[in-house]
Amino acid sequence: MPAPARRLTRRTLLGTAAAGMAIRTPRARAATSPLRLQGIWTNDPESIGYFIGIDEGDYARVGVDLAYLPGGPELIPEGSLLGGRSDIAMLSMINAAQAVYRKGADFRIVGAQYQKNPDAVISLAQSRINGPADLKGRTVACPPLSLLTFRALLRHAGIAADAVRIVPYTFDPTPLINGEIDAIVDYMTSLPWVIENTGGKPAHYFMISDAGLPLYSNVLVTTGDTLAARRHEIEALLSVSRTTWTRNFQDPTVYPKRYAQTWFRRSGLSLAALVAQNRAQQPLMSGRHGYFALAPEDVAQNIATLRLLGLPATSALFDPSLLAG
């Protein structure tokens, strides 16, 4: 497979000199220090709604001086939050819960960007892997972050742990395309497109949420102290971000093209890949309760899944009140 394919996967280890550099909201009226938002990954369409709000002055107009901190393969978002380098951070649902229930962090989830988790088991269409039962006797590449969830998926489906061979995922789909492995656990917003458009083979996937383990992803997390001190700004951030994400999805081609040489210039993604990812994430975000919603029934499902993963989650982990307005 050509080298560019290795740069197109969502979690490819990119050289990102900009990771950790804050990008500030222009002309903000806030008298306080900047509200620092830690991204979960390098700059790609996952964060495009925040970039719109910064560039077009939406946050500044409501008095929020937003400083966006790009993530990256070497950066741990919860570490940024705990270390005081950010005021609010995007985390995986599992990482947020582990920080609270295994490490004692005083975290609150105030919004969920992905109402449905993009994690999926991705394969070549010819492999006919349509659900967990089809994984028996197969070899699956899985990143460390997803191991807990994937093993829980197998247990939930009644599949013995030794019935599936799990190997490390090097963030490169070449072994899948070459038939060396049968499937990869990764985000379905980007990898299937890469396989089909760079590897030249039809891809297929099933989502882990659809297989009985629903979870949010890219949850917005802050500490109890920060929430008490900066509640108004965080409420404004959520409210404005709902409008900027809505604007983005009115035509998912507009902002990827506009930001290809600015926000996304280090991503290694082609314009076609940026647009494809932006389109693919829309149905995961725009749930029936609106962007970032923490609806009671969805929170209950997330709690149930976290408990299946061995994390004693309760509703105290979530604070939906900031979205009530």
Name the poorly predicted regions: 1-8, 10-20, 27-31
At the fourth CATH level, what is the homologous superfamily of the largest domain?
A: Periplasmic binding protein-like II
Count of domain modules? 2
CATH class (first level) name of the largest domain: Alpha Beta
* Strands, count: 11
The largest pleated sheet is described as: 6 strands, mixed
State which percent range the strand residues make up. Answer: 15-25%
Distance between the termini: 50 Å
Protein name: NMT1/THI5 like domain-containing protein
InterPro entries: NMT1/THI5 (IPR027939), SsuA/THI5 (IPR015168)
Organism: Tanticharoenia sakaeratensis NBRC 103193
Domain SsuA/THI5-like: 45-252
Descriptive notes:
The chain is an alpha/beta fold and 325 residues long. The chain folds into two domains: 4-115 and 216-323, D-Maltodextrin-Binding Protein, domain 2; 119-211, 3-Layer(aba) Sandwich (D-Maltodextrin-Binding Protein, domain 2), CATH 3.40.190. The chain is built from twelve helices and eleven strands. The protein has helices at 4-8, 48-55, 58-61, 77-82, 93-101, 144-156, 174-177, 191-198, 224-250, 254-259, 271-285, 296-308, and strands spanning 23-24, 35-38, 66-69, 88-91, 107-114, 119-124, 139-142, 165-168, 183-187, 203-207, 217-223. The strands form two sheets. It has a six-stranded mixed beta sheet with strand order 1-3-2-4-11-5. Strands 8-7-9-6-10 form a five-stranded mixed beta sheet. Helix 6 links the parallel strand 7 and strand 8. The longest helix is centred in the C-terminal third of the chain and has 27 residues, at 224-250. The radius of gyration is 19 Å and the shape is globular. Residues 45-252 form the SsuA/THI5-like domain.
